[in-house]
Design brief:
four-stranded mixed β-sheet; 2,3-Dihydroxybiphenyl 1,2-Dioxygenase, domain 1; about 100 residues; 7 strands
């Protein structure tokens, strides 16, 4: 499962309606739906302290990071915001857009 094996989240509960994960003390509830319509925007993101190391770790597990033509991204597909934050986006197996953010 992507969220446990790739993202390292601890699965707390499984029901016919949702999966519940522990994200370092914060609960993440992921709804189970019969027909997913993936959003065209970020649906969940994680704050990280070393975005380059986290990208390398996830890429080694097969995660592909996204490029956006309207953003200036570096060779690791990281966009640096005007205030110095670094953000990279990727998709889960269902097509949900996720992100990593390292605050500058």
């Amino acid at each position: 499962m992507f969220y446990t094996q790739v993202m390292g989240q601890k699965l707390l509960e499984t029901s016919p309606y949702a999966l519940v994960f522990d994200e370092g003390g914060t609960t993440l509830r992921v709804q189970i739906v019969p027909d997913l319509q993936a959003a065209s925007h970020t649906v969940h993101g994680w704050q990280v302290t070393d975005i380059r190391a986290d990208i390398a770790h996830l890429a080694a597990q097969g995660v592909t990071f996204l490029s956006f033509p309207h953003l200036e991204q570096d060779d690791m597909r990281i966009w640096t915001t005007p205030d110095g934050h670094k953000i990279a986006w990727f998709k889960d197996p269902c097509g949900n857009i996720l992100s990593l953010t390292e605050y500058g």
